[in-house]
Amino acid sequence: MPKYSFCKSDRIVKRAEFVRLSKSGLRIRNRYFIANCSKSGGKVTRLGLTVSKKVGNAVTRNRMKRLCRECFRLYRHNITETRDINIVVTKEAANLPTDQFFSSLQKLFDRVGSAHH
Fold first, then answer.
1. 21-34 pLDDT, tens per residue?
2. Does the residue 16 lie in any domain?
């Protein structure tokens, strides 16, 4: 049975880890999101989020982060290898309805899961 929780150890929080992903990680993008990912040395797939002020005000940015975390929580079992993933949310994603937001991000997670890097 897949694990559906999302705890502190499932997050990327250190700046050095974000920098490492952006410099040496594999970049996968679609219209609304950019995923920087690389194989993780840990036991779990971890998620980092980048939502800049260009996306919107604090309420909008926090909503984007909540939706990303929820989508990751539900679809992380599709990612077979342990990876570190940083999702960068683009400005266009702020106007998406929730179902489109989830489907677009789910497709990105599927591509991350099948990517070889």
1. 999 889 999 999 99
2. yes
Is residue 38 in some structural domain?
yes
First to last CA, the chain: 27
Q: Please, which residues have CB within 8 angstroms of residue 93's CB and are 6 or more apart in sequence?
A: 32, 33, 55, 64, 101, 104
Bin 104: left if φ > 0, else alpha if -120 < ψ < 50, else beta.
Answer: alpha
Instruction: Kindly report the CATH number assigned to the domain that includes residue 58.
Output: 3.30.230.10
Distance separating alpha carbons of residues 75 and 92, to the nearest angstrom: 22
Tell me, yes or no, if the pTM score tops 0.85: yes
